[in-house]
Design a protein that fits this description.
Keywords: Lyase, NAD. It is a single chain. By secondary structure, the protein is α/β, with parallel strands linked by helices. About 40% of the residues lie in helices and about 15% in strands. It contains 13 helices and 14 strands. The protein has helices spanning about 10-25, 45-50, 65-75, 85-90, 95-115, 150-170, 195-200, 220-235, 250-265, 290-295, 300-315, 315-325, 330-335; strands spanning about 1-5, 30-35, 55, 75-80, 120-125, 175-180, 185, 205-210, 215-220, 220, 240-245, 250, 270-275, 345. The protein has an eight-stranded parallel beta sheet, sandwiched between helices. It has a two-stranded parallel sheet with strand order 7-10. It binds nicotinamide-adenine-dinucleotide and thymidine-5'-diphosphate (TYD). Thymidine-5'-diphosphate binds near residues 87, 196, 208 and 209. Thymidine-5'-diphosphate (TYD) binds near residues 192 and 209.
Length: about 350
């Protein structure tokens, strides 16, 4: 099978590329990524050495480039991870979120219609459901929870979900959608809570906790998310939405304290800073549907996953130091001449 993975140079997309190459060595993976600030080709260095992997730099909103890639690569499955993904950036400047997350998704859906694929999978987020109150631990997001977004990021992801469902109903594009809770693990860009706190703690810098730190996120180790998507694209029912999460709810302040404890750093590094505008209070997924239909369940508990993640950041200083110094952004230019398998679609 030919599988297009968009956004494969980012956090979850790259983990998915490695998951698929290992689990299904018979399949070809074609990664499309624009290499925005969040995309890092160094992350895909090991994949680039494999015959079954190909990297193409392109913008998912560039219709000509996307059609050309579909024409040449003839994908059976398309998994769309490509997105602007950081809530704080969406509050600063929403426009690029609309361009990539909505227009980009619509271009991919048009390409899927034109070249009739077997499956288009949209990687969505639990943030499309809005938030839950802190004093109702009995409430969870199910697939039936109404969409009720808070940030420009979540509004753009919800818009994309609606388009995906519209293309299924109107044009019979064979789609699935997954809505996952917060991920953590290797290759997580250090603007997000967990990698930022690990790196700041290692550098004895302040750990900026928004507001009181009582907001709750439902953490899932990234490999468990990849396993769920792999199941959905191969066995999930067309037209369906699947929630993904592993009942690993933690308050931000407790996550930060756990990281400090693991690293042997003092809690005096914690600095409570101004709260995020419109800050969602609690996310919590009910994963009953994917468990009952596809037999998925998470394998990594938060206590173990956070240790694995900290260990990974300790052992891969070059990776995140390259990001902090900005070196990773010239990697494509440095490597482009040497790598025959990469193609450049003009962006
Ligand atoms: P990320 O920001 O780490 O990576 C996004 C990738 O998309 C980058 O490689 C970037 O270069 C690429 N990209 C951005 N705009 C593009 C464009 N116009 N064309 C082509 N490529 C483009 O994001 P992530 O955390 O890996 O998230 C991946 C997907 O999973 C997103 O759709 C996000 O909404 C969803 N998601 C993330 C989480 C989470 O906790 N990180 C949870 C649930 C769902
Ligand atoms: P983040 O990793 O940005 O993911 P999301 O907003 O998609 O949940 O943030 C996770 C939580 O951590 C969220 O409640 C905001 C909070 N946060 C901080 O307190 N300080 C920070 O520096 C960051 C980046 C996030």
């Amino acid at each position: 099978m030919n599988i297009i993975v968009t956004g494969g140079a980012g956090f979850i997309g790259s983990n998915f590329v490695y998951y698929e190459l290992k689990k299904h060595p018979e399949d070809r993976i074609i990664c499309i990524d624009k290499l925005t600030y969040a995309g890092n080709l160094e992350t895909l260095e090991a994949a680039l050495k494999k015959d079954k992997f190909k990297f193409i730099r392109a913008d998912i909103a560039d219709r000509r480039a996307i059609y050309r890639i579909f024409e040449t690569e003839r994908p059976d499955i398309v998994v769309n991870f490509a997105a602007e993904s950081h809530v704080d950036r969406s509050i600063e400047n929403p426009e690029v979120f609309l361009q990539t997350n909505i227009i980009g998704t619509s271009v991919l859906l048009d390409a899927c219609r034109k070249y009739s694929i077997d499956r288009f999978h949209q990687v969505s987020t639990d943030e499309v459901y809005g938030d839950l109150p802190l004093d109702r631990p009995d409430l969870f997001f199910t697939e039936e929870t109404p969409l009720h977004t808070s940030s420009p990021y979540s509004a753009s992801k919800a818009s994309a979900d609606l388009l995906v469902q519209a293309y299924h109903r109107t044009y019979k594009v064979p789609v699935t959608i997954s809505r996952c809770s917060n991920n953590y693990g290797p290759f997580h860009f250090p603007e997000k809570l967990i990698p930022l706190m690990i790196i700041n703690a290692l550098s004895d810098k302040e750990l900026p906790v928004y507001g009181t730190g009582e907001n709750v996120r439902d953490w899932l180790y990234v490999k468990d998310h990849c396993a769920a998507i792999d199941l959905i694209i191969r066995k999930g029912r067309v037209g369906e939405v699947y929630n993904i999460g592993g009942h690993n709810e933690r308050r931000n302040i407790d996550v930060v304290k756990t990281i400090l404890k693991e690293l042997g750093k003092p809690e005096s590094l914690i600095a409570h800073v101004a709260d995020r505008k419109g800050h969602d209070r609690r996310y919590a997924i009910d994963p009953t549907k994917i468990h009952e239909e596809l037999g998925w369940e998470p394998t990594t508990k938060f206590e173990d996953g956070i240790k694995l993640t900290i260990k990974w950041y300790l052992e891969h200083r070059d990776w995140w130091m390259g990001i902090i110094s900005g070196d990773y952004q010239t990697y494509y230019e440095r490597m482009y001449d040497q790598r025959a398998k990469m193609e450049y679609a003009k962006i």
